[in-house]
Write a structure and sequence with these properties.
- About 45% of the residues lie in helices and about 20% in strands.
- By secondary structure, the chain is of the alpha+beta class.
- It has a single domain, classed as 3-Layer(aba) Sandwich (Aminopeptidase), CATH 3.40.630.30.
- A 7-stranded mixed beta sheet has the order 1-2-3-4-5-7-6.
- The longest helix is centred in the N-terminal third of the chain and has 18 residues.
- The model has no long low-confidence stretch (mean pLDDT about 85).
């Protein structure tokens, strides 16, 4: 795996749009009047910029997988990231769901530590036929966390991914479900492994 460079933006967007097309935890925020591919590309562009500002975008060696994982309080604010978020919100977010989106994000943020040193594993995605890319990224990021002696926090809305994270040492510390809105999240944490 390698750290992404700004020139990797289109590769990142292409992978993101394909991988997250069917992820309801991701797509429920998108405006239905915008073509799904276009909305996902806008979300991907925002995710790439935010991850790059925080120095946490990774690409698998075979360029079939992506991940965003960054130090919690690394470069928290940037005009470029704010601008990217505004473009994404104006061009792809379902405005009628904005109060729900903000409430969901606030809830998720409150379940992670508000201070301290840790890595936030925002997401990992590999093309369907490239499971090895996902494993490479997952192992590589956890090795970095171990070398820094930092815990890793993440959330997933995809139940089938929970056992995979658990195999890598993550433990669920909180579960959140709002049935009438189809929201469910598992909040997981992994302590650093020492040799």
């Amino acid at each position: 795996m390698r750290k992404a460079e700004w020139k990797d933006r289109e590769l990142f967007i292409k992978i993101f749009a394909e991988v997250f097309a069917d992820n309801t935890g991701t797509t429920w925020v998108l405006r239905k009047s915008v073509k799904p591919e276009k909305a996902l590309r806008r979300m991907a562009r925002y995710s790439f910029v935010k991850g790059m500002i925080k120095d946490g975008v990774y690409i698998s060696d075979n360029e079939k997988g992506i991940a965003v994982c960054y130090k919690f309080n690394k470069n928290r604010y940037s005009l470029r990231a704010i601008w990217s978020e505004l473009i994404f919100a104006a061009g792809a977010v379902n405005i009628l769901r904005l109060p729900q989106i903000l409430k969901r994000e606030s809830y998720r943020n409150k379940k992670r530590p508000a201070s301290g040193e840790y890595l936030y594993y925002w997401f990992l995605g590999a093309l369907p036929s490239e499971r090895s890319a996902g494993l490479e990224l997952g192992k590589g990021i956890l090795e970095e966390a171990d070398s820094m002696g930092l815990p890793v926090y993440l959330e997933t809305a995809v139940e089938r991914l929970k056992p995979a994270y658990e195999r890598f040492g993550f433990r669920t510390y909180h579960y959140w479900e709002v049935q009438e809105k189809g929201i469910q999240f598992w909040f997981l944490k992994r302590e650093p492994h020492t040799s």
